Amino acid sequence: MRALIVGGGIGGLAAAIALHRYGWRVQVLERAAEFTEVGAGLSIQPNALRALDALGLGDEVRERAVTDAPVGTRRADGTWLIRNDVDRLTRRYGFWATLHRADLLDLLHRALPPQTLRPGVRVREVRPDGTVVHSGGTGTADVVVGADGLHSATRRSLWPDAPAPRYAGYTTFRMIAAARPVEGAVESWGRGDRFGYAPLADGRVYCYAMVTGPPDGTGGLTDLRRRFAGWHNPVPALLETVEPGAVLRHDTYELPDLDTYATGRVALLGDAAHAMTPNLGQGAGQALEDAVVLARTLEAARTGDTTVVEALRAYDRIRRPRTQMIARRSRQLGAMADPTRLPPAARDAALRMAPASVFVRSMDPVLSWTG
């Protein structure tokens, strides 16, 4: 059986690998001229590592990554708000893995036969019967997977009445700082702004900042250095080592809940289905989970035990409640950092008073996924 994957990011490549492992003939249509990645770092949490294990890539990811659990959350002045028991988190959930996004994309690319990858193809329309109209002509498949991101052409074709993505109220900046020792993965909260950092295997440090403000604004490294100049060490020092022009800036959008992730022979996956805020760090992880579950449900169609349409309905029944729950939790966590919704002093007091066990248990619904 044949599958067309629209989009060659993490979710699309993972879906292609999962289906290829089950014997599907797969083709990935990517609008960019090359399958490259210009991103910064990426934290793969335990649930996502289990999805990568299912794809046969978990061990290679661990070899390239720093596998420590996050250390905790500080205030802008360095006071701890949440101090994690790293060993306890690892025993309960498994390993985290922090690596450069390009390293993960490289592993995903190499897990597929080169002929399955078609860069430079812009999809114009997707039809429920499995037809895809694109810049290179028209293709048909037994199943089409829309893994084409927040502004998905697949979703636009078949979910024309779906609500548009909505701005979350802040812009996210990502960057890589020069090598220096840091205590581990830490996020710090100020009055509406947040800054996080985590070590990479080569000694460099992945950094990100979330800055409250209107969309389509300006801002770059100079603005970040000024905004975070009074924060605790090593935040200002990390920003001083970032190369000018190497900061990725994205206004943060999320997708309102869809009624279904599947119609006819077409399914949505990853951000195309459930783009979420980065507060839980689960965007890539949920796309990886989607890929594993999609391939497993479609296996029944490949073997003749059910139809593709029914298999995709099963995928929707499994994935939509979980991903929408996680998107909701991520949105709620982001609201805690918004000073217009919760005064920072009240927020900080509540976080410092909460037992560490409460935080650990609160992560169960997200991190305990096993497939």
From TrEMBL:
InterPro entries: FAD-bd, FAD-dep_Monooxygenase_BioMet, FAD/NAD-bd_sf. The keyword Oxidoreductase applies. Keywords: Monooxygenase, Oxidoreductase. Pfam families: FAD_binding_3. The keyword Membrane does not apply. It comes from the Bacteria. Residues 3-161, 259-329 form the FAD-binding domain. One of its GO terms (molecular function) is monooxygenase activity. This is FAD-dependent monooxygenase. It comes from Actinomadura sediminis.
